[in-house]
Amino acid sequence: MSSMWVLDTAAPSADARISYGSLPYQFGDLRLPAGPGPHPVVLVIHGGFWRAKYDLEHAGHLCADLTGRGFATWSLEYRRVGHDGGGFPGTLEDVALGADFLRTLARSHPLDLSRVVALGHSAGGHLAMWLAARHRLPPGGPLHPEDPLRLRGVISLAGVVDLERAFAHRLGDGIVETFLGGPPASVPERYRTASPTALQPLGLPQVLVHGTEDDTVPVSMSEAFCARGVEWGDPVRCVTLPGAGHFEVIDPRSREWPLVVEAVRSCM
């Protein structure tokens, strides 16, 4: 069975849709497991090559599965290319704001902020890895965080973790140039600021899960990121999935899904 069903089938409803900012796309879906908690949290960031036409709805399937396994999930929506303020830096500002908003949510919900793992798919994998790396941004920059929420670990599912390489290979029909406002030669600082590869080592556990038959984002991107991280001495590992494409990693019915769950547990 194709994993594309996750894009076309309505997901189970969230427990609550909550705004983390004042703008239209600054909200997230919160799901809580049974029991009193406090619950470990998976911060979920959907993919779609940062484009406005792809939203968080399809990520509800994996969120519901993880919540059924005892994890609270906080699935972020954010401004994307095609929205007012989407792209660089607005998209990054939104996911940072949404992540740090977990501190506010924890005042009224049983969340364990000492066990927060970020997980993202495709472009969301880029954003999850960037969240894990943002403490590496130089002070004084527009996206340097004053007091970022500390993550326990990060999982990239077929993530676009190297933006210069993604530009060179014209992934997503050249969307990286639109997302960052130009090619690397014109806006090099934006690539250095936004690309997880440029911010290595991250200094926290990282698991990159990627199908060997992914024709949307090549598995070699994750493999190269992991090899570079190992050279830095970073706690990073790559889980390659023989025969899997781009969407099996977000399909809770797929044979690959248990390996994603294991990656989450390993980072907690």
Summarize the structure.
This protein is of the alpha/beta class.
Count of beta strands = 8
What percent of the residues sit in helical stretches (DSSP H or I)? 25-40%
Instruction: Please state the average pLDDT score.
Output: 97
Tally of structural domains: 1
CATH class: Alpha Beta
User: How much is the radius of gyration in Å?
Assistant: 17 Å
Instruction: Specify the number of helices.
Output: 10
The biggest sheet, with number of strands, parallel, antiparallel or mixed sense and barrel status, is: 8 strands, mixed
Structure write-up:
It is a single chain. The protein is an alpha/beta fold. The chain has one domain: Alpha/Beta hydrolase fold, catalytic domain (Rossmann fold). 31% of the residues lie in helices and 18% in strands. The protein has 10 helices and 8 strands. Strands 1-2-4-3-5-6-7-8 form an 8-stranded mixed β-sheet, with helices on both faces. β5, α5 (123-133) and β6 form a beta-alpha-beta unit. α3 (90-100) packs across α5 (123-133). It starts with a helix and ends with a helix.
